[in-house]
Recover the amino acids of this structure.
């Protein structure tokens, strides 16, 4: 049911450079809240799904289906809203079907909480919805679908987080559905541990591999282990894999099968931080990507670090293969401490070779207030060889638009500013000059820039002044090597200067025009 007029206001930059399209967009689609959680690129457009809140009481959460052109231009959208229940597609992954339609998963909250399967037409019309209760219903109805796969015969497997009948902690649940979304069977896997699933892949040799975590809910001496299970198509467990108990490891947030039968896993490394004499806190200090062979032996592993501040919300969210399976790109969110009371949270991207070497690392950060947060939900490769990321840009300072859908279209190097991967030094021994790269220039909505040949520096700051020398924007950053995205749509047209300041002095300045 449509209960709000979608008056779109895409705040965006867009340009085609050397065959690549770049854009950055934030929008709430005319609703109080909007988040995009899945993207499906095609040769002609992008299909998106996510969540919105209704603009009329009782302000329930609904689903939105959006179609965009390859330049990010809005084409059409449809919403799924009800006054009786929510429709929440938080962790789905939009899948195409042979008949030209699409499938997504989520859950509903009404009289009974249930798993949700939605089938859409390319115009966003809802062709069918199927709802299924938890394996433990009616003792405990809690269920959240987190991933699903579709077989060639149309059958589907849906991976869910469910809660034990005694409400103690989580278990893993798998549903098998036929091509029409009818339940064939459902099984749960659990123990005395808290077991939380995150990802699901089809195995080349038959069956499914579940990526999860095992943890103990304690006050001190935490135990958190990556947990993998392989099941056959009837749900029987074939093998299990656990990281060592003395290593704090995040869940298998995402996984990719490799051509040699191996498995690349996106996870994280944690540390326990004392809070007081009787309790501690588990925080994640790096992203951790590793490859297992067919015997579940570690072939290589690599940490995605930097000046990451250990935080509970640091994690990798997506992992994809690129370059015909010869490399991988992972996306996530990590925070860096700006001051004792302020943390910048960036969207991070890393490209990793098939041998486990980090080829590049990118950070993208919208600079709007002191409490900006960026959450990437989905990552895909695009038809032009670039990357598209969708998620949300949030501001912890209350405002009418403090949670907006966020879309980034980057080139194959992870750049929003063209050429961010190039090094200016002409000789190996030369010390490259620091500089500022701006894109686009002139600009209308956003100024995107990065510091060329940045050196690690605490207290790095930037300032934007108008033609009269008056400061219109100043901010500090913990990361000099990030791509910064500054909203400028409310500024007066004219000439401005972006300045990089180090140790209190202006090290370099770049002129730009606001149209």
């Amino acid at each position: 049911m449509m209960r709000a007029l979608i008056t779109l206001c895409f705040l965006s930059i867009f340009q085609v450079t050397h065959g690549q399209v770049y854009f950055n967009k934030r929008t709430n689609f005319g609703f109080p809240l909007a988040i995009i959680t899945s993207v499906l690129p095609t040769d002609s457009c992008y299909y998106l799904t996510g969540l919105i809140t209704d603009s009329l009481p009782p302000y329930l959460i609904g689903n939105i289906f959006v179609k965009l052109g390859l330049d990010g231009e809005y084409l059409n959208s449809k919403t799924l809203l009800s006054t009786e229940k929510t429709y929440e597609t938080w962790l789905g992954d939009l899948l195409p079907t042979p008949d030209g339609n699409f499938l997504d998963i989520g859950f509903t909250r009404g009289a009974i909480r249930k798993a949700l399967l939605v089938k859409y037409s390319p115009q966003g019309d809802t062709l069918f919805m199927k709802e299924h209760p938890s394996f433990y219903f009616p003792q405990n109805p809690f269920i959240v679908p987190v991933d699903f796969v579709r077989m060639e015969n149309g059958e589907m497997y849906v991976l869910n987080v469910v809660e034990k009948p005694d409400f103690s902690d989580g278990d893993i649940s798998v549903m098998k559905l036929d091509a029409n979304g009818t339940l064939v069977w459902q099984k749960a896997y659990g123990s005395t541990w808290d077991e939380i699933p995150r990802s699901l892949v089809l195995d080349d040799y038959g069956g499914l591999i579940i990526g999860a975590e095992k943890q103990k809910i304690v006050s001190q001496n935490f135990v958190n282990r990556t947990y993998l299970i392989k099941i056959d198509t009837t749900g029987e467990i074939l093998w299990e894999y656990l990281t060592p108990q003395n290593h704090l490891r995040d869940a298998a947030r995402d996984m990719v099968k490799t051509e040699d039968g191996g498995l690349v896993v996106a996870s994280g490394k944690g540390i326990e931080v004392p809070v007081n004499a009787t309790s501690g806190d588990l925080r994640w200090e790096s992203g951790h990507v590793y490859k297992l062979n067919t015997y579940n032996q570690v072939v290589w592993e690599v940490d995605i670090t930097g000046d990451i501040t250990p935080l509970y919300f640091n994690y990798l969210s997506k992992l994809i293969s690129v370059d015909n399976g010869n490399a991988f790109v992972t996306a996530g969110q990590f925070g860096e401490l700006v001051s004792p009371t302020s943390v910048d949270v960036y969207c991070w991207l890393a490209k990793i070779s098939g041998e486990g070497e980090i080829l590049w690392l990118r950070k993208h950060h919208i600079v709007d207030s002191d409490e900006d947060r960026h959450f990437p939900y989905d990552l895909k490769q695009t038809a032009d060889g670039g990357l598209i990321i969708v998620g949300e840009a949030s501001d912890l300072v209350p405002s009418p638009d403090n949670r907006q859908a966020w879309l980034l279209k980057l080139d194959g190097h992870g750049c929003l500013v063209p050429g961010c991967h190039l090094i200016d030094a002409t000789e190996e021994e030369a010390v490259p000059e620091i500089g500022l790269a701006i894109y686009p220039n002139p600009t209308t909505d956003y100024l995107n820039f990065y510091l060329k040949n940045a050196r690690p520096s605490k207290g790095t700051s930037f300032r934007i002044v108008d033609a009269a020398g008056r400061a219109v924007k100043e901010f500090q950053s913990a990361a000099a090597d990030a791509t910064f995205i500054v909203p400028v749509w409310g500024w007066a047209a004219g000439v401005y200067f972006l300045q990089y300041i180090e140790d209190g002095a202006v090290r370099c300045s770049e002129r730009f025009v606001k149209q």
Q: What stands out?
A: The two ends are 39 Å apart (CA to CA).
